[in-house]
Amino acid sequence: MENNHKTGEERLEEDVASRPKIELESSSRSADVASQLNKTVQSSLEEEESNPVKSEKHAPQSKFDLREVKATSLIEPAISILNIIETALNSASPGSASIAAQGLDLLCPPTKSRDIGDYIWILWTMFLDVAQALPHDSDKPGQGALVAILFELQQCAKGDVSLWGSEWRLWKDLPLLSNFMDETWTDPVRKDEIIDAQSARMWRNQNAFAARCVGAGVGEWAHFGIWQLRAALEESREADQAENQECLILVASEWVIHSGPRLLQWAQDEDKEPEPFDWGTDVATGTLFQGNPGLSHRRWKFWKDRFNEVSKDTALWSEGAIAAAREAVGSMAEAETRQGKEPA
Predict the structure, then answer these.
(1) What Pfam family is a match for this entry (predicted)?
(2) Are 175 and 231 contained in the same domain?
(3) How many CA atoms lie within 13 A of 231 on its CB side?
(4) Measured CA angle at 135 (ends 262, 183), to 5 deg
(5) What are residue 168's DSSP bridge partners?
(6) Are 84 and 34 a contacting pair, CB within 8 Å?
(7) What is the model's pTM?
(8) 18/134 same-domain check
(9) Judgement on whether residues 230 and 122 belong to the same structural domain of the protein
(10) Is residue 40 part of a domain?
């Protein structure tokens, strides 16, 4: 679709510059909605804590503090969005994701408002910022809860909205989320420099979240996973870039751990087709894999074999990379078993 060759962030910056207040219709109620949500969830927490059985079953294993994320989010309703997400992440209530989704829906301007596109873009920005801050292996609370909020948001019917030249169902289609992911997907691993520990950690967290979304059926961006699996497993290892190579393996493992069954299903579907899966050059193969682009069982098996090699090579790989590769192999074997296909 036409976007005048400007990124979503550039468009958002222009809109912010032209309008002192982004949320003309809903900013005045943002704090009230967030406050009410906090009270509702707190009530649920107190109820759960009064029941030892329920409290032990649903209690968070740790608390997530989003103050660092909030420190960089100076635009309302970003703070209110983060308050809602943070409260839900730290709630012991099994219904906290649904409550959070309702709160985010209430913050959203009417479908005919000129501000709705701004709100949606800011919302996805906050989701990504939070995802980068949450540990890749955190489930509930954590990244699993964040994906659950997206799923519950899809259940909130608000009507149709026209954005970027397309019609969307709010919130069933999660408007602009795929566009946002495409616009902001920037791999920090570069051949000409060594990635720092913080960037590597945030990149792994981001990929884990994206993979969880694909695995849960709330995201259709499997091509990101193919990019990361290709970079980690289909290219020769650079001996002088150990940190980068480890980051690639850790990131790639997240895709088969969290979205393996869906990737395998697409690979099996491709095996039934006479022509390669038509995803264009974005899913081209690396130099080590001799096969068609896209997803196929042959490519899946190649990835599994390569992960298996890493898991056994203690001379070249760190304990972290070996553990991740071993978990990836196990996840792939489990996906094969679940789909009734003999492990390769």
Answers:
(1) DUF3632
(2) no
(3) 23
(4) 60
(5) 161
(6) yes
(7) 0.83
(8) yes
(9) no
(10) yes
Query: Is residue 334 in a domain?
Result: yes
**C-alpha distances out from residue 280 to 183, 266, 284, Å:** 18, 16, 7
* 229-262: pLDDT as tens digits: 999 999 998 877 899 999 999 999 999 999 999 9
One-letter amino acid identity for 28? S
Q: Provide the H-helix boundaries in 72-196.
A: 78-89, 96-107, 116-133, 144-154, 177-184
pLDDT band at 13 (very low <50, low <70, confident <90, very high): very low
Backbone angles phi, psi at 188, to 5 degrees: -80, -5
- Burial track 286-302 (b if 16+ CB lie within 10 A, e otherwise): eeebeebbbbbbebbbb
pLDDT, tens only, 104-157 = 999 999 999 999 999 999 999 999 999 999 999 988 779 999 999 999 999 999
Cβ-Cβ contacts under 8 Å for 236 (sequence gap 6 or more): 287, 288
Are 56 and 136 members of one domain?
yes
What is d(CA 272, CA 290) in angstroms, rounded to the nearest whole number? Answer: 19
Tokens of 141: 């609370």
How many structural domains does the chain have?
A: 2
User: 81 by DSSP, 3-state: which?
Assistant: helix
| Boundary-marking domain end, from 180, 197, 230 | 180
Residue-by-residue DSSP string for 187-201: ---BTTBPPPHHHHH
d(CA 78, CA 67): 12
Residues 1, 166 contacting (CB under 8 angstroms): yes
Q: Which of 128, 148, 180 is the last residue of a domain?
A: 180
Q: Are 102 and 156 in contact (CB under 8 A)?
A: yes
The angle, 0 to 180 degrees and rounded to 10, between the axes of the packed helices 242-271 and 222-233 is 130
Range of the domain at 149: 8-180
3-state secondary structure (DSSP) of residue 161: strand
The answer to whether residue 198 sits within a structural domain is: no
Query: Integer distance in angstroms from the first to the last C-alpha of the chain?
Result: 41
Q: Are residues 151 and 286 in the same domain?
A: no
CA separation (Å) from 17 to 20, 22, 267, 303? 7, 9, 46, 46
